[in-house]
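re: ur msg from earlier - yeah i can do the 1-deoxynojirimycin complex, just paste it... oh wait u already did. ok heres what im feeding in:
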Amino acid sequence: MRSNHYFSVFCILFISLLFFSCSGKQGGKDSVDSKVNALLSQMTLDEKIGQMCQIDPGAIGGQEKMEEAVREGQCGSVLNLFGAREVNAIQAIAVKESRLGIPLIIGRDVIHGYRTVFPIPLAMASSWDPDVVREAFRISSVEASSQGIRWTFAPMIDITWDPRWGRIAESCGEDPYLASALASAMVEGIQGDSLNDPTSLAACAKHFAGYGFSEGGRDYNTTYISEPVLRNVVLKPFKAAKEAGAQTFMSAFNDLNGVPASANDFTIRQILRKEWGFDGFVVSDWGSVEELISHGYAENEKDAASKAINAGVEMEMVSRTYSDNIKQLLDEKKISMAQIDEAVSNILRVKYRLGLFDNPYADTAAEDLLSASSLAHARKTARESAVLLKNSDKTLPLSKKINSVAVIGPLADAPRDQMGTWCFDGREENSVTPLTAIREMIGMNRVKYVEALEYSRDKDTKYFRKAVDAARAADAVIFFAGEEWSLSGEGQCRGEISLPGAQSELISLLASTGRPLIVVVMAGRPLAIAKELADADALLYAWHGGTMAGPALADLIFGDESPSGKLPVTFVKGAGQIPFYYYRKNTGRPASAKSWTPIDSISRDNQQTSLGYRSSQLDYGYTPLLPFGFGLSYTTFEYSDLTLSSESLSDGGTLTASATITNTGDMAADEVVQCYVRDRVGSITRPVKELKGFQRIHLEKGEKATVEFVITPENLSFFNGTTTVTEPGHFDLWIAPDSESGLHGEFSFK
Ligand code: NOJ
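and the outut:
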């Protein structure tokens, strides 16, 4: 007996020692969970409900109301509060004046930068450079955390096929493989090496799920997504974000197959929790619980709260259905205490992991905004994000010795517009515009600037003559075209996706001067630019490039570096071609040059059977304007010697595909080498191509490199409607500069 007693005492001491040795750090799961349990056991129901509510100071009715809610333990999180002192003041109320002193988690949308604004996410995706993207998000987190923010509603990783949808700007584009690689990098950058580092923020993978498929590209709209598309496309980046450790997920606004995403038990409880084992928490989108009523999915606020909680939405952003109804729902047994405890535990777990209990305050001396190294990285990111779409007769780069350049257009000197959609905390006075940067690079008096159009939608042609005169007098013309920042982003959708206002007309006039015409497009979406592409001698698609867009573009225009971005979305010829994505299905009647009859060549006495009956459009044909993965360089790259390590791959094995890439042009540059696969026959039809790997390499002039891609059976697996399988059969493989060309090989999976 006695020795048993000593043994138990020893065990207790040992376990406590273990517990305390972990407690100051991020801590093992057990140590965090025992703290969570200990705290949970002391909490009243009101305090638990409080943790499940996130408030916005404006929406709740001002500072005093917010303070009162925090003091009373009626709130677990505040969004849209920033500034180290402001955050510390409210945190002090939570920590010192609320009964249990539970710290708040302060959230904010830091989507593509805080004060240093990086290119919009779609632009960053064009870099195909996870390292650069990771660092951009790390910098954003360092800046945001210095203002007291410890949670960002990023990464936004909705796959979309629709450039009309304004939020395409915030996305990584159309491809699940590229978006997954970037989602991991973004989460890693946001959360840093250790969550409890004061510069780490909790990431929030959003919008879960399917939001990017809003019908007609109209924001917030209904989505219908088959389970294979959901699992093979939409959910892929979310899974990657979860695996990279994302601590929170945001439930989306959209109705998904008849069940709104913010009440969707299948995506949240079944997939995220059960299948993926997620142990962070799920926050609703702004008011999306209350919106279940408008969706026609809930009768009233009580019903909305019940449905969201039952589906696993644990924190309600802004709307108040949880605070007002949870007690009654418990009494009526519509929800259970176990569900509330689970939700609160998940929220507290994230707060412990962030170290908020040990260190709830922001360091007021840590302000680190717009440092030289952050700005340098923003410039590099913007440079890598620009995609060269045309360069006839080597129009670009321009010589720095050029005598005169006409800089024209509404985006040449538009500091706010170049920052893009999501930048609550960016300041336009910190933006360096292309006009400023070009003047700095070649000298003020060699640049003739004519704005010509005051903003992107301007239709007034009164300065056109002046612009044309300036063009005639110059050695080269650079027209900065695009969209204002407010034409993309949340709620900013368009039906037509052409260049707004009279820009296109002016570009044609400038082209008719015969001077070398460079068009730089700074926009939030892939615009339909067929006409401008034809008119321009060179076209650089720069998106909204952020604070340092100007210097980055000057670096490229004057050849300090070569453009190296590649398109993360297919460019369509016009809105009528949407959706058009490279991993489409082949159809039973794929079109080809032979089968397509352009609309203008249909003869008047055409017979019914002479039109080909193939999958195409009479006006647009069957190919997009520009394919996914496309992007030119100032140099040229030759792809040769495709080698496959074996003709077949078997279960548990790997296959290595390699090719030699040679820089055959006359300057050093980066190339993004891509690897695509086609599964020829499947138990459900398979895409014509799927990206399975990519590498950004740097090659000096004349240099060559062997690039290898490892294919595993898992890479080839897909959800076929019933299960996830890799099916035996034949596969095509390409190592390629884009999704429409490249070296081709074949292998089989047995
Ligand atoms: C609504 C947006 O959909 C979401 O992305 C954002 O994080 C929240 N508002 C909070 O601002």
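cool cool. Residues 195 and 354 are 5 Å apart (CA to CA). ping me if u need the other ligands too
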